[in-house]
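Throughout our pipeline, every protein is held as a single compact record rather than as scattered files. The record that follows is passed on verbatim for readers who wish to inspect the format:
___
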Amino acid sequence: MAPTKVLTGARLVLPTGTVDDGRVIVEGTRIADGGPPGPEPVGGSAKAPGGTETVDLGGHWVVPGFVDLHNHGGGGASFAGGTAEDVLKGVHTHRLHGTTTVVASAVTGDLDFLARHAGMLAELAQQGEIAGIHFEGPFISPCRKGAHDEGLLRDPDPAEVRKLVDAAHGHARMMTLATELPGGLDSVRLLAEHGVIAAVGHTDATYEQTLQAVDAGATVATHLFNAMPPLGHRSPGPITALLEDERVTVELINDGTHLHPAALQLAFHHAGAGRVAFITDAMDAAGFGDGRYMLGPLEVEVADGVARLVEGGSIAGSTLTLDRAFKRAVTVDGLPVEDVVRAISVNPARLLGLDDRIGSLEPGKDADLVVLDAGFDLVGVMRRGEWVVRPQLG
């Protein structure tokens, strides 16, 4: 029997606010308690089997494990077209950076290939390695294709959308659509009926068309600002519609490349911390390094941590990890830690329908947590009660 783990001397970010000199008690895979110091649990000497293992965190932050809704890979491995071993390698890479829950994102490809690949990803989801599948493409606009192969794009036929959903065997979590295309609104309705998030993205929609999509059931903006028309004073476009509608959560890639800090501030100011989800949109190079990679069928050059298509130069995902997004949000963007926790853990867990298990430090939930030092650098990661990165404390 694993010992009870008691993490003491922590700055805890709880749903009720931040607690200084707090503690978290972990029993097995779950959080047993979390809050101000209290009586020590009974159970024998430290590190004794069935006893109590105590870790004094010396004032470090403890926040919920990060939840990434939109991620294509990492560690040199791809979620979009790799083997099961590749996916597991990428998942482990992101766990080392605090992402204890990850949705595997596919990119545009041949429909039959996507269906077969979804079957493999569904098995990993069944095993609890990933939280489900996000289909980004092929039902997106050629006008805003970004790093997607234009030759494989297609209008969102509800029958084909249903084929991919069925291929995921209940593990399809989200699909990004250009909802202005023929069949777009019917596809949104189909996804909503099957409990799959319909996300507006890679779109050339007008303001009015975007509102129609939200009315039909779309609830997420795929990497807001990117791969969609810019905000205009006479043509407000999808950005305005998605920011102003209380039913929509907006994804943001906070890597300093995809968004100007003022754009991020605009999104937080207008949508509020309760409607923002930080994502990575990571590709293979995340946590790995510069070089040449494949994103689906397209070749990508990563230089100085920025991924661009070899042909055309479009930004091709990111090399971001969520620990870097967290640190940047606090130290560069000046956001309150509590708001960052909402954007990086609470909100994505809610969107996935998993907030009864993950996303916050509450009794009964999975013991998924991240330890950050005073400068918001990652020093520890726990997933389901086991250390992925054990804090090395002086």
